[in-house]
Amino acid sequence: MAMRDIRVVPDPVLRTPCEPIREVDERVRALVEDLLETVDTEGRAGLAANQIGVSLRAFSWNIDDEVGYVLNPTIVELSEDEYQDGEEGCLSVPGLWYPTHRAWYARVEGTDLDGRPVVVEGTELMARCLQHEVDHLDGKLYLDRLERSVRKKAMRALRDQL
To answer: Is 66 an active-site residue?
Structure first.
């Protein structure tokens, strides 16, 4: 296991959709161990594989003292009538937090290392984390979801950091 460095914008791996995991081999097992170790740090809610430079569909989470992972996650349900607009940040966009519109509830399905079905669901922070991490695996950043005027401000702040 290893604590891995976090890739930050403008690293192109963050904008590349991740490939599905077709076979669980030692490389995938090591990836999951690294995801779990790297996310298990105070202040970290979730971590997608591409954030540590691996373009495979896997992420880990660390919410309310629960650390876990899912392979090949797919969002299968979002609340349609309840939303949240809280501040959101990202390890790959350090130091920038902006109000981001997300569904209040989210449900993700995937598998574990043994191919068994995994269901992860939650509201508030867990829902935000699930949506955020699946976005990463699709090559998207939370900045892409900001309202136009806020996104313009965020992109200016991001350029100033680079």
So the answer is: no
Structural domain of 50: 12-161
CA pair distance 107, 131, nearest whole angstrom: 9
Regions in the chain scoring below 50 on pLDDT: none
State how far the Cα of 99 lies from the Cα of 18, in Å rounded to an integer: 26
Spot the catalytic one: 26, 42, 109, 133.
133
Consult the annotation and say whether 90 binds a ligand. yes
CATH number of the domain enclosing 27: 3.90.45.10
d(CA 140, CA 154): 15
Total domains present in the chain: 1
pLDDT > 70: percent of the chain: 99
CA distance 51 to 35: 10
Residue 101 labeled ligand binder: no
User: What DSSP assignment string belongs to 121-138?
Assistant: EEEHHHHHHHHHHHHHHT
Q: Please check whether residue 110 lies inside any domain of the structure.
A: yes
pTM greater than 0.90 (yes/no)? yes
